[in-house]
Automatic annotation (TrEMBL), chain A:
CDD domains the record matches: ABC_DR_subfamily_A
Name of the protein in its database record: ATPase
UniProt xrefs under PANTHER family: ABC TRANSPORTER ATP-BINDING PROTEIN, ABC TRANSPORTER ATP-BINDING PROTEIN NATA
Organism, as annotated: Mangrovimonas yunxiaonensis
Residue intervals of the ABC transporter domain: 3-230
SUPFAM superfamilies for this protein: P-loop containing nucleoside triphosphate hydrolases (SSF52540)
Superkingdom per UniProt: Bacteria
Family per record: Belongs to the ABC transporter superfamily.
Signal sequence coordinates: none
Matches recorded under SMART domains: AAA
Single GO molecular function: ATP binding
InterPro entries referenced in this protein's UniProt entry, alphabetically: AAA+_ATPase (IPR003593), ABC_transporter-like_ATP-bd (IPR003439), ABC_transporter-like_CS (IPR017871), ABC_transporter_ATP-binding (IPR050763), P-loop_NTPase (IPR027417)
UniProtKB/TrEMBL annotation, chain B:
Identification of the protein by name: Transport permease protein
Keywords carried by this UniProt record: Cell membrane, Membrane, Transmembrane, Transmembrane helix, Transport
Keyword Secreted: no
Residue intervals of the ABC transmembrane type-2 domain: 116-366
GO MF annotation list: ABC-type transporter activity
Topology class, membrane: Multi-pass membrane protein
Pfam families listed in its UniProt record: ABC2_membrane_3
InterPro entries: ABC-2_transporter_component (IPR051449), ABC2_TM (IPR013525), ABC2_TM_bact-type (IPR047817), ABC_2_transport (IPR000412)
Compartment(s) where it occurs, according to its Swiss-Prot or TrEMBL record: Cell membrane
GO cellular component: ATP-binding cassette (ABC) transporter complex
Chain ranges passing through the membrane: 21-40, 171-195, 222-244, 250-273, 285-303, 323-356
Superkingdom to which the source organism belongs: Bacteria
PANTHER family: MEMBRANE COMPONENT OF ABC TRANSPORTER YHHJ-RELATED, MULTIDRUG ABC TRANSPORTER PERMEASE YBHS-RELATED
Amino acid sequence: MEITVANISKSYNTVTALKDISFGVETGELFGLIGPDGAGKTTLFRILTTLLTPDNGVATVSGFDVVTNYKAIRNSVGYMPGRFSLYQDLTVEENLNFFATIFGTTIDANYDLVKDIYVQIEPFKNRRAGKLSGGMKQKLALSCALIHKPKVLFLDEPTTGVDPVSRKEFWDMLKRLQNKGMTILVSTPYMDEAALCDRIALIQDGRILEINTPKAITEHFPKPLYNIRANNMYLLITSLQKYQHTHSVFPFGEYVHYTDKRNTPDKTALSQYLKHLGLTEITIEKTKPTIEDSFMELAKK
Amino acid sequence: MKKFIGFVKKEFFHIYRDKRSLFILFGMPIAQILLFGFAITNEINHVDIAILDQSNDVTTKEIINNIAASKHFNIVDVLQDETAIETVFKKGKIKAVLQFENMFAKNITKEAQANVQILTDATDPNMANTISNYITSILKKQQQDINNGAFTPYQIIPQSRMVYNAELKSVYMFVPGVMTVILMLVSAMMTSISITREKEQGTMEILLVSPLKPYQVIAGKVFPYIFLSVINAMAIVLLSIFVFKVPVNGSLFFLALESVLFIITSLVLGILISTIAATQQTAMMISLMGLMLPTILLSGFIFPISSMPLPLQAISNIIPAKWFIVIVKGIMLKGIGLGFLLKETLILLAMTLIYLGISVKKYKIRLE
């Protein structure tokens, strides 16, 4: 186990950020913390990176305790905070150089590690970091977090505010880093990114809802799920919410994801009910649940 | 060591690229010293006064001529009667009126006594006092001339000599004060701002999760400002020597050493502020209100400490600037060395160590 978390709790004054959290991350694993804003992801990251101390519980990183042996952890991990935290008035190259220096290394020594990422921002190496686009900022931040060849990488919402193309590139890089043997703990509010992790923990209101592989989580979805579409989205949702057999209704792109209280729902009756309310072009078809569906279902309980 | 150099390099980039801090660092000291040196002065020069001469004889004419001849006064109005006095004061341009009684010359020779009244506009009390003193001294001189050769029994003749600043130049008093204020401002405010900026921009989070130790971060932060403050101190001393002709009677090297000590005291105060303040705004407010104001008001820079109420005198003792001003005045004007300034130096040193101890204790190794 590279990271262990046992019964960690943390409160700020009256607000409880984490309630009795436990999980473990294997060496070389790409582990995702999936949850909405305010779920407690950043607090957990800060505890693991020794920036905060937990009220209760024990956590270790690479075998070092986060409270008593914090110096050893600070020497060996890479951390990329959720907010862009590089020097905006320093250029791309100066930032990277600075972080290499304070970790007692040089860009050249670990260039192969950051090469894949850094080549993309290298054309702008004389530009101030504050003037980079969102995606490039994140690539620079990742380069800076990587430059000292950390054993464990903590990435707090690295793709928030980044365009879809850059997001995909970013995840490709994480995969490559994982192949080099790095343990990566990443958090994201985007459910579609969850499928790219080896294992994920769904987290909400400071509690872990479930920990498993993304595949297993979707397979555990308890009910048949339906894509429903009609000519009027708003009316469709409100109608379904009023339907007596409805278990859950969530808008999902151009569809509505629907589950029924019964195990085998009556599609024709539902279609009739919707027609009766004035909806046309109704399609109802079975679909596979996504992580988002699982999350919504788990969060309902 | 490499880490330290890397950190210092980064700090210089910050300073060099932020036009605002560059201005505070180098524009302010020069502007302040020139401002205090030239514009703000306690001396009186070319003050407009009016004369009400009801006697209009040889003696009064002579006195008036003497006053007009001095560079301190301009006689801009000659009044005809007493009712005009209030009118000219109300207009505000005239700061003093000199009124001679009727038959002034005759009274002196016949009665051995003549009266002259000095009326001053005391809306500015210091100024009124100074004007009154200046005129009195001109009148005294006149009296000596009249008495010249005559035998006057029983008289006290005060012989005052202004030691260390014979011409009573106010710039002699401002240079040490301004130097103190500027070093305090640059050192304390700039360091506290630069440390809180790391907190505000989230970079402190990354610095904490790095092998850098707290003392390395602080040393890296402080070093560039020691360097820049020493340059500032040198610029101020050179300006005062060559532009304002303030003498440096003591050892320049000793002055430099004491300045470095005071710079370090101020830097440590800056670090202390940054451990309390979470944002650059707060750091700036605390530096300005908590350090600058007491430094200007309670250090004896402008207002003499001996005439303050006792509680304020007590407070002035904990203000580092008070001791540094004594040191600078001692070295520059009196030309004394460590032997006479040991107490002040030790107090500054003790303050530095105490503040440093508190800062190290309060420095946060985590985010909370």
